[in-house]
Design a protein that fits this description.
The chain is of the alpha+beta class. It contains eleven helices and five strands, in the order αααααααααβββαββα. It folds into three domains: 1-130, no CATH class; 131-230, no CATH class; 234-304. Strands 1-2-3-5-4 form a five-stranded antiparallel sheet, with helices on one face.
Length: 305
């Protein structure tokens, strides 16, 4: 716990808590637990040959995580609550701005943790990429399934917040109602009653906002995929070059009558086209810019030839 001094941690809650020392102790303990838990999780899943790599990965992660935690504690020290300081001459507008910045940075921290841990696990071979490729024949079904799951998560969070923030129920009644919600663990229920720096309980607003944004993003991607799958493969020949818009393969393919010049090959590569020996064609993924770039290359090929 020496990475974060007790004095520094306490100062972060000086103006927002009746017991800043306890909050500081808790913040330091959370930091240590976070690092130890991540270490234990990885250590249990790697081989002995990977221990040196694991040590290096954790050291880099710890340094970055510590830096970000200290930044957040520093930001929190500039936030005050009327419950602690009193309402007289309280700079409400300034505090609101600082709260907004803190919330945004906290959200960014959570996102960084998720991405950084996933990247480490991939480098260690613990997990494989779960990105749904547009080339996957079952991509539409997988995205639809993912959207359905995210919708259920959104409704779960909304329902839980309504219960935990109810003024008509005592804590025991709230817990009883929360236990009826499918997917909420005991730990999750306990955490819902832990107030944030503004004294708010339940799932934080940014979690619902992020989940909602993921739903919208996936719905947009689903719409594009459905539109693409409804199209037909087309073929045309321009200036001796056959251009196939291959819907099934999700590729735009260029078939040259002979090997292009070095300059044309460089243009193909710089515009996302790659040589595919199995079909003797230059091809790129189908997207909004692939065809215009292909036509520009075809025109350049004609001028050079």
């Amino acid at each position: 716990m020496k990475d974060i001094s007790q004095e520094f941690a306490t100062s972060a809650f000086q103006h927002t808590s009746w017991s800043p020392e306890d909050r500081g102790i808790s913040a330091r303990a959370d930091y240590v637990a976070h690092i130890n838990n991540f270490h234990d999780e990885l250590y249990a899943k790697v081989s002995k040959d990977q221990h040196d790599q694991l040590k290096e990965e954790l050291l880099r992660y710890k340094e970055k995580y510590l830096s970000k935690i200290k930044e957040q504690l520093g930001r929190h020290s500039s936030i005050a609550s009327t419950f602690i300081t009193g309402g007289s001459n309280f700079p409400a507008r300034q505090m609101n701005k600082r709260n907004d910045v803190y919330s945004r940075k906290q959200n960014e921290l959570f996102e960084w943790i998720e991405k950084a841990q996933k990247a480490i696990k991939k480098r260690l071979g613990i997990i494989k990429s779960k990105i749904i490729s547009s080339d996957d024949p079952t991509a539409i079904e997988k995205i639809e399934s993912k959207i359905k799951i995210l919708y259920s998560v959104q409704e779960r969070m909304k329902k839980a917040n309504k219960i935990v923030r109810s003024k008509k129920l005592d804590k025991a009644q709230k817990i009883k109602e929360l236990e009826k919600i499918e997917g909420l663990s005991v730990n999750s229920i306990d955490n819902l009653f832990e107030p944030d720096y503004m004294g708010r309980i339940g799932f934080p607003a940014f979690e619902l906002k992020n989940n909602g944004a993921n739903i919208r993003r996936l719905k947009e991607r689903l719409e594009k995929l459905n539109m693409q799958r409804s199209q037909d493969t087309t073929s045309e020949t321009l200036n001796g070059i056959r251009i196939i818009d291959n819907v099934e393969a999700n590729r735009l393919q260029l078939f040259f009558p002979e090997k292009p010049s070095r300059e044309i090959i460089q243009k193909l590569k710089s515009n996302g086209f790659r040589w595919t020996p199995s079909i003797q064609a230059w091809q790129s993924y189908r997207n909004n810019v692939a065809r215009p770039r292909a036509l520009e290359i075809v025109e350049g090929y004609t001028k050079e030839s």
